[in-house]
Design brief:
Order of helices and strands: EHEEEE
Strand content: 35-45%
Largest sheet: 5 strands, mixed
Radius of gyration: 11 Å
Distance between the termini: 20 Å
Shape: globular
Number of helices: 1
Amino acid sequence: VDGLAYAYPTILIDSFWGLKFCQGQSVSVETRSCGEHRVYDALGRFLGTGLSNGEGKLQPQRVICPDLSI
């Protein structure tokens, strides 16, 4: 599924932020790069794409979340 966004850089977020991302909330990230990113959780599951503002915030753009209860 993530092949459609292969050109975007990757951001990894922990399960706490992963749940927030999947609920459509902006999350804190450590990257300072701007633009679209592929977003994965700590288990390597693709969560979707997000737009980074370059100041530590990532806004969900396309959310494709797995069952996060695991």
